[in-house]
Amino acid sequence: MKHIIFYVNSMLPAGGIERVVATLANELSKDNKITILVKDQCESFYNLDSSIKIESISTYKKLDMNNRFRRALSLFSSFIFSVYFLRRYLLKKEFDFIYVTNPLSFWESFLSFRCENKIIASEHGSRLNYNIIYRILKAGYKYSNTYLIPTKTDFNYYYNHGYPARYIPHLRPLLDYEITDISKKNVLNIGRFTSDKRQLLLLDIWHNILLRNKSLRDWTLVLVGAGELEKEIIEKVHELNISCNVKILPPQADVKSLYTSASVFALTSSSEGFGMVLLEALSFGLALISFDCPSGPRDIIDNNIDGILIYNEEVEKYESSLINLMIDSDLRARMSQSGFDKAKEWNSTNVNNEWKKIL
Fold first, then answer.
1. Quick check: 13 and 38 in contact, CB under 8 A?
2. Residue 295: cis peptide before it, omega within 30 degrees of 0
3. Strand order of the sheet with strand 287-291?
4. pLDDT (tens digit, 9 = 90+) per residue, 52-66?
5. Starting at the edge strand that comes first in sequence, how are the strands of the sheet with 53-56 ordered?
6. Other C-beta atoms within 10 Å of 349: how many?
7. I want to staple 149 with a disulfide (CB 3.0 to 4.6 A). Which of 155, 201, 323, 326 is the partner?
8. Is residue 287 helix, strand or coil?
9. Distance of alpha carbon 102 from its chain centroid, rounded?
């Protein structure tokens, strides 16, 4: 049995990284000792196995998003404090590996001088979505024990550039999956309300669909999430006068009820690391539509079989394809069954075998 420390900023958000960490920690806890170490409260939005401990080094600092200088100062001071308190924490612990999800956590671990060849770095975003500073910081991953990549495109890049890369797709969350009723006239989108998720673009597409197709005005677009663009999204819904056909909901722990109340899942992201929501939607038998953005959707969607991939920025094609899904119930039914069947084969055996090799 190995002791693995998952070192993350927080487990309170209802985000994709937190979902991946919770799912992986639960799976690995069957054969290993797992500790989740955070910087804030010892709580998790997602359910964790009772054997998993959550502990904190209490170095969380709220960032001032309206002032770049104060934000940078807070990041720097948080980094220094985190290195110091992480080192103090690790000096008292016997552990085999420390799992990190971002470059700052990697460098905090590295500079604690307690993690020699013990750092497992994990990727959660497309490599093309990072700024130059983030990319420079990520160069440190070359000194990690293992660098986990969930998408084939990014794996090939990092492997060919000398990183200790290993391709391991994310585990499917342990949920009570059942196939949705494809007669449900709801289109679902789940994700943080941020510029890269492009819910504002989805609202423009939705407005055009309703404007040009009176027969589809009994459909509803359901946006689930929270984030810095929430106010703009709400304002745009009223500006476009589509509030009767749009629902905005906060993140929810009971995602099953969200997925089974819809028949189509629409993703408009400009980039995705893996797209956990796509895997979840597939597992509930929703027909999928997504831009073919870097790097994850094509690892999940088989085009025109269980979903539709649209070349990035082909907005009119996306709109017409979404209309086809909404109009054609036979198409939805075929994609629904194909996706549901495929997702059942997305099991943990291969992922567990890869982890056994690492550990």
1. no
2. yes
3. 246-249, 220-224, 186-190, 264-267, 287-291, 307-310
4. 999 999 998 776 656
5. 53-56, 33-38, 3-7, 97-100, 119-122, 146-149, 165-167
6. 7
7. 155
8. strand
9. 13
pLDDT digits (tens, 9 = 90+) for 250-292: 998 889 999 999 999 999 999 888 888 999 999 999 999 999 9
Q: Which amino acid is at 252?
A: Q
C-alpha angle with apex 306: 300 to 309, nearest 5 degrees? Answer: 65
Pair of tokens at residue 341: 């069947």
| Cα-Cα end-to-end distance for the chain | 9
Q: Identify the helix (H) or strand (E) that includes residue 340.
A: helix 329-344
Within 10 A of 59 (CB to CB), how many other CB atoms are there? 20
| Residue 198 Cα distances to 79, 189, 193, 230, angstroms | 31, 11, 8, 12
189, 268 contact by CB (below 8 A): yes
pLDDT in tens, 304-339: 999 999 998 899 999 999 999 999 999 999 999 999
pLDDT digits (tens, 9 = 90+) for 63-113: 665 667 677 777 888 899 999 999 999 999 999 999 999 999 999 999 999
Residue 350 pLDDT: 82
Q: What does the alpha-carbon distance between residue 135 and residue 131 come to, in Å, rounded to a whole number?
A: 6
Rg of the chain (C-alpha set): 21
In the chain, DSSP assigns E strands to 3-7, 33-38, 53-56, 97-100, 119-122, 146-149, 165-167, 186-190, 220-224, 246-249, 264-267, 287-291, 307-310
Q: Which residues are paired to 290 by β-bridges?
A: 267, 309
Q: Residue 174 — very low, low, confident or very high, per pLDDT cuts 50/70/90?
A: confident
pTM: 0.85
Specify the pLDDT at position 65: 59
Give the CA distances from residue 170 to residues 16, 65, 66, 115, 220, in Å, rounded to whole numbers and listed in that order.
11, 31, 34, 24, 30
Residue type, 312: N
